[in-house]
Amino acid sequence: MENLVNTYAAKLVKAKLGSDAGPCMPLIGGLDDKLVWNRKADETKVLENIFKELNINSLVFLRPAKPYGSLLGFLAKNALNSNGLIQPKDCETRTFLHDLPVIKDFCADQIIRVLKKRKTAIIAPQSPNDDFKGPAIVAHGTVSPEQGFVTVSSVCFASFVKFYTDYLEALQTGKATNDAHDLFDAVLPYIKQEQQPLPDFIRAPFPDEETVYSAIIEAGKKTVEYGLVDSYFGNVSYCCHKTLYISQTGSSLDTLSGCIDPVPLDGSTSAGLTASSELSAHLEIIFRTKCRAILHGHPRFCVILSMDCDPAEKAACCFSNQCHIKCPKKRYVGTTPIVPGEVGTGPTGLCNTLPPALEQSNSAIVYGHGLFTTGKENFSDAFATLMEVENRCYKLYFEKIFQLRPECKARFKNHHPKQ
């Protein structure tokens, strides 16, 4: 257990959600034969009480590093002034978190009350003079600290996407507040375009099954390293010798060794039972496009722009509460289509909405969900497209902002002169 709490604390730091020093250091506790923490901290006096009341074996506590902490604090303050809930609309939140309850005191009783119903609690003291400095995220695990790590990562992602989605809509409708303007400007230095050089990948043709596995493991790891997906979301697949090799459901893309399923295209085995929940979509994409490589990530600005809609059209739309599965409008980022769809094989399942789009383009964005890209033979092509589309979405987002707030362009250029 001691190794696990240290491992996931380090992963939060590596993902730039926490820091290795100061108030944003992750704090993780794990209960085996005894309760162990990755470090000493005053907060453990409160957090240890949670173990006594809930059937859990781990807790993750994090004050997110910038910009996530600033964005979460803003959203939490607004939530406390309304119904006490942050309600993002991205796919991860809809299917995994539902909503983010906010409490105003660092109190075991309040945290326990929330964690009995939800995977996480957001702690946001209302007074800046409180001894507890927030905001902070608390998440639990019943099997491993891994569960809390996944939840905390998802909260940070959801907070980022929600703030930037809401801010653009508020500008479009003339409802943006001074506080929102100030925060947007304050975190500009942290919002950078992905500019790393493209990594090298194992090149096809792959001589044997072992090389296929190595290529998938490498592609997953690079997708996480470049910030194009949280490690426990997204998926990777490669088709070779009438078999689709695909990452397993719930697997971490940066540690896929032992977590890849070989699924025969003829359905002759039950290997697909533990495969990604989007297996049916991958199979249909392979069938329709004849590509071999598929990458699915959750790049932040792709997700944000997928939910951007003209306010007048949105007000008149009869599907406004079901945009993610029934959006009737054909929308694009460049040549990349934006399509609705949900996990599964129903009428609005991704296996029905996504493959036709990928017949026309080597990339497609799913509303509120993420980006799928294909490569005819290699992951290098799919990865390059993943980066290209996300960078295009990043630029387009800020172009929209500059049209509505021209004065912001100079501030942006000051912080990012090469962009």
Automatic annotation (TrEMBL):
Domain Class II aldolase/adducin N-terminal: 214-397
GO cellular component term of the entry, any: cytosol
Gene3D superfamilies according to UniProt: Class II aldolase/adducin N-terminal domain (3.40.225.10)
Pfam families cross-referenced by the UniProt entry: Aldolase_II
Keyword vocabulary terms for this entry: Lyase, Metal-binding
Example GO molecular function: aldehyde-lyase activity
Protein name as it appears in the record: Ribulose-5-phosphate 4-epimerase/Fuculose-1-phosphate aldolase
InterPro entries referenced in this protein's UniProt entry, alphabetically: Aldolase_class_II_sugar_metab (IPR050197), Aldolase_II/adducin_N (IPR001303), Aldolase_II/adducin_N_sf (IPR036409)
Keyword S-adenosyl-L-methionine: no
SMART domains in the record: Aldolase_II
Organism: Desulfobacula phenolica
SUPFAM superfamilies from the UniProt entry: AraD/HMP-PK domain-like
GO biological process: pentose catabolic process
